[in-house]
Amino acid sequence: MNRLIIDSEKDKLEKALNEQADLRNQLDSVKQKLESYQNASAGASEGLWERNLITDEVFISPPWLTMLGYESNEVEDLKGIWESWMHDDDRERALKHLEDYIDGKIQHYDINFRLKHKDGHYIWVRSKAKLVRNEEGIATRISGSHTDITDKKSTEDTIAKSERKYKYLFQNALIGMMRVKADNYAVTEINKRGLQILAMPNVSPHLKLEDLLADQSQMTEVFDLLERNHGLEEHEIKIIRWDESETWLSLSAVFYEDETDRFYDIIFKDISEFKENLLELQRLNFELDNFVYHASHDIRSPLRSIMGLVEILKNERNPAEIRKIVEMISGSVNRLDKFVVDLLAMSRNNRVEEEAVPVNYMVEINNSVTNFHHVYNTQGLEIRTKIIQVKPFYSDLTKVRIILNNLISNSIKYRRMEESVDSFINIYVDVTEKESVVKIEDNGEGISEDKLDKIFDMFYRASENSEGSGLGMYIVKNVIKKLDATIDVKSEEKKGTTFIVKIPNKYIPQD
């Protein structure tokens, strides 16, 4: 029994000694091969290296050292130089990559990291390696190469920096920008400002340029210009925003081609305000021409009348006729004065912004009614008022007076004079924290439906017999706009007219 145990132990010992001898022979063979490999690769640009995972011996070729500024005789101990010369920020990542490769967690060893040069700076190295395992699958050695990729990395970093700068400028530009594929006009990118202009939350994956254009003719024109000229320059188009509203854009585009695709880089800006200003300017020019024509006529008309009456007066001796002529002159002067007052009111409304002050509707309406009660024939006219003003109301007092005076005076002037008609004016006011609602209703001459949309035009007179300047309701319209108010009118000829004005309350409660 003891004999059998001794023989067994002897066999194990002999087997271990044989394996050790084989391993030593393999190691000597590897050394010889590596020395030959080092001599052959001394002039190569790649640094070759090998590490015995059993003995921890390290072999490196001269280029491995020279790329780091060292000669072969300057480095005696090769163990651990890889780890010690590695950049602190790369060491943990690189060691784990090597460990995972040896453990079989990853299939390939290929990694970039930084090694310290003799001069103190760091170079970027690409390290590639292959693992050798024995018959039992145990990793015995690893051999590979180092390639200096500093220039390549610097170029990549420069490109990446440029791309980041482009992305930043693209996303944060103050104008809209988009990129569109040249072959099918698919929109691939839109910056933040562009999304705002288009009222889009993000870029739809299936969005195409034609989805934004308002009509077919525009689409054909834009595509034709892009294909013919490879670009656009400040081309104005109407587009449909994502919320289905329409707006005007100015487009400029350039053609761009890279290794993989062809694009149009498009910049665009919202010119709706410009378009509105242009239309407003055209409207104002029209109104100015209209104003000059009518103003000169309305000023000259009473002046010619006065001049003619003065000539008659020079030769008139009859006192009764003289008084009649003087009254006619006075009427012409009053008409001229009213016209000038309206012009001043119009000018003041356009120029002056007054602070919001308390408005007492009872006082203002009584003053307005009293003023016009003595100017016009109000015999038989019943004026009824109902004013509910519990809350304070603040607004531009001058502008509120313009509205009240014009609407009340018109109701008085254009009342029906037939004896069979019981003329009335109903004035109703209701004040809340939000606004005041003023309703002025009469049973006067009324306005025909075909004239109703013209009553706010400059120099429009509802009646041929009107002696007004034709500016009153035009001024009211502009005052309403200045106050952010609204005005609605309903009228029927020979039945009467109703105006409803809503004026925002500017009162701010004190804490």
UniProtKB/TrEMBL annotation:
Keywords: Coiled coil, Kinase, Phosphoprotein, Transferase. Residues 6-40 form a coiled coil. Gene3D superfamilies: 1.10.287.130, Histidine kinase-like ATPase, C-terminal domain (3.30.565.10), PAS domain (3.30.450.20). Residues 109-161, 233-283 form the PAC domain. SMART domains: HATPase_c, HisKA, PAC, PAS. It catalyses: ATP + protein L-histidine = ADP + protein N-phospho-L-histidine. Its EC number is 2.7.13.3. This is histidine kinase. It comes from Marivirga atlantica.
